[in-house]
Design brief:
Elements: H1 2-16, E1 25-32, E2 38-45, H2 49-61, H3 63-73, E3 81-86, H4 89-106
Parallel strand pairs: 2-3
Antiparallel strand pairs: 1-2
Length: about 110
C-alpha cells in the first residue's frame, strides 16, 4: 500500500502541481497508520537551503490539492490525510559521497 501511495503522490506532484518553487525532489518514505487514515511522506529537495525551504513551502501549500487528487486516484473508504516532512538525510549522504569523490580526484 505504501509503495502505491508513494507512486501516486509522486505522479501528482510531477504532473498536477505547477508551483515553480518545487524543484527536483525525491519522496524518501511513506508511512501509513494502521487504519490508512494518515500518511506521513518524507520528501527531499536538491538545491541550496533557500531553494529547499521554498520548495517545501510549495509542497505544503499544495498539500490539500495533492490529498484531493490522491482521493480521486485511489479506491479507499477514506482519503488519507497527508503530512509532508522535510527529509534531508538522503541529500546529506549524497553530498558526503560527492565530497569524497572530489577529495580523491584532488590527490
Amino acid at each position: 500500500m505504501e509503495s502505491m501511495l508513494r507512486e501516486e503522490i509522486e505522479n501528482i506532484i510531477r504532473k498536477d502541481v505547477s508551483d515553480p518553487r518545487i524543484c527536483f525532489f525525491t519522496i524518501t518514505y511513506v508511512h501509513t497508520t494502521g487504519d490508512l487514515k494518515n500518511v506521513r511522506v518524507g520528501i527531499s529537495f536538491m538545491g541550496n537551503d533557500t531553494e529547499k525551504k521554498n520548495a517545501f513551502r510549495g509542497i505544503l501549500s499544495a498539500q490539500k490539492f495533492i490529498q484531493y487528487k490522491l482521493g480521486q486516484k485511489i479506491s479507499l473508504k477514506f482519503t488519507p490525510k497527508i503530512e509532508f516532512e522535510l527529509d534531508e538525510r538522503k541529500e546529506i549522504r549524497i553530498e558526503q559521497i560527492l565530497k569524497e569523490i572530489r577529495e580523491e580526484n584532488e590527490d
